[in-house]
Amino acid sequence: MSKYSLDYLDHLESEAIHIFREVAGQFERPALLFSGGKDSITLVQLALKAFRPGKFPFPLVHIDTGHNFPEALEYRDQLAKTLGEKLIVRNVEDTIKAKHLTEPKGKFASRNALQTYTLLDTIEEFKFDACIGGARRDEEKARAKERIFSVRDEFGQWDPKLQRPELWNTYNGRITKGENVRVFPISNWTELDVWNYIRREKIELPSIYFSHEREVIDHEGQLVAVSDFIKLDDTDKVLRKKVRYRTVGDMTCTAAVESHASNIDDIISEITATKTSERGETRIDDKVSEAAMEDRKKNGYF
């Protein structure tokens, strides 16, 4: 008798689709956090496979810091329009004004941590009981130990010591009033898996993921794009380089990598050869401390 086995990408896809359908079955008001980055774009593709020809059982939600790459925002709006799905955008700028929060200072004044306030307000506004995100275990050590169904308390906080066991494909989404669950369908994927899936599914991406010329400065070995959000000083030397982005966050906290990879095959070749994770190579905000990501998650971050 012949044995049937799934290709590894089919296996990852099947697992993610199962998780999406578990969310739809277990929660009353889920949402898909969508930024226009490659991981959230992959989530949208998986949601299409999970729920089409029907509509998504959740809206797309973007917490906009005001420091995003314009290419990602343009892609975000166009994709939502093309799919005919509801897109909810809430702005960190409005939260800063409403809550009288202190605007971050410094050369790379990032609003990244302030997204937490806006996210929690948005969860409260729409009574979301589950938020689906594109975090992966291979990105960073705090994410490596977080469950696929990650329960947050009534304050949006994550306690690593109170995580639930996840045996086989069983996910426990039961929560009490005020609690929220963050769900990560591609938690078991790697950066290379995502790119192989993008290639297989012929998924379009924002242009910043591919090699292009951009004005940058060299900050401690990282190439940071020149923008209105970064305060240049006399010591900065503006360079024009061929770069691409491995991950897309704010312009104030995301560095580019020097690259001539102009297509997906070339990008996959680069990733296969690299010895540094995407966040390790490009995220300035993760270098604040050894536990920067975990500290943000404990306070309610994505």
UniProtKB/TrEMBL annotation:
Its EC number is 2.7.7.4. SUPFAM superfamilies: Adenine nucleotide alpha hydrolases-like. GO terms for biological process: sulfate assimilation. Pfam families: PAPS_reduct. Transmembrane segments: none annotated. Keywords: ATP-binding, Nucleotide-binding, Nucleotidyltransferase, Transferase. It comes from the Bacteria. One of its GO terms (molecular function) is sulfate adenylyltransferase (ATP) activity. Gene3D superfamilies: HUPs. Residues 30-255 form the Phosphoadenosine phosphosulphate reductase domain. Belongs to the PAPS reductase family. CysD subfamily. This is Sulfate adenylyltransferase subunit 2. The gene is cysD.
